Amino acid sequence: MFKRLIFGLLFGVFVGAGVAAVAIKALGVVAFGEGGAAALLAYGLAAVTGVLVGLIAGKPIWASDAKIEAGLKAFFGALLASGLFFALRKWLHVEVNLGSFGAGPAAATEIGQLPAIALPLIAGVLGALYEADNTPEAKDKASAAAAPKAGAKLRVAGGAGVAADDGDEAPAPRQAKR
Predict the structure, then answer these.
(1) Hey, which residues does 95 pair with through a beta bridge?
(2) Along the 178 residues of the chain, how does pLDDT read in single tens digits?
(3) Is the CB of residue 69 less than 8 Å from the CB of residue 59?
């Protein structure tokens, strides 16, 4: 489980860094502002990050029988990412300077204002959560294949008149010939 947790954390950071790179390079947003439109963009990018992590972390959407689960993870991932982004901006006041890397303004800025730090951080938390929640099914399928299925007819040796035994009831008594 620890290995899945670390994998989910790294996978989420990778997805968040991709969304942050799109925000920085394509949209030109090196720091989120405080105004209405800037906050709307910031929370929108956080929600998109949560949706992407929900769709591909844990059991991805392309896995068999995972469409509903991935859709739910995407929906709640958007909500959780927005909530985590709010908490990050409201209560975590750590300043960093990413100006020399080209990923932030020249002056020191709080990490809740920087998409290069905030989005990978949020996505890493969500990725670790979803990956730790994902339980592998390979062992379950192997043990289910080895065990007989419920209601299966089994041949019992030693009696010509006994056709099957399903394990739940005693076999019917033999009819005497007349």
Answers:
(1) 110
(2) 788 888 888 999 999 999 999 998 888 888 887 778 888 899 999 999 999 999 998 888 888 888 888 889 999 999 999 999 999 988 988 888 777 776 667 677 788 888 888 999 999 999 999 888 877 666 555 555 565 566 666 566 665 555 555 555 666 667 777 6
(3) yes
Boundaries of every domain in the chain: 2-137
Separation of alpha carbons 115 and 32, rounded Å: 7
Handedness of CA 79, 83, 89, 95 (dihedral sign): negative
CA 77 from chain centre, in angstroms, equals 8
Its pTM stands at 0.69
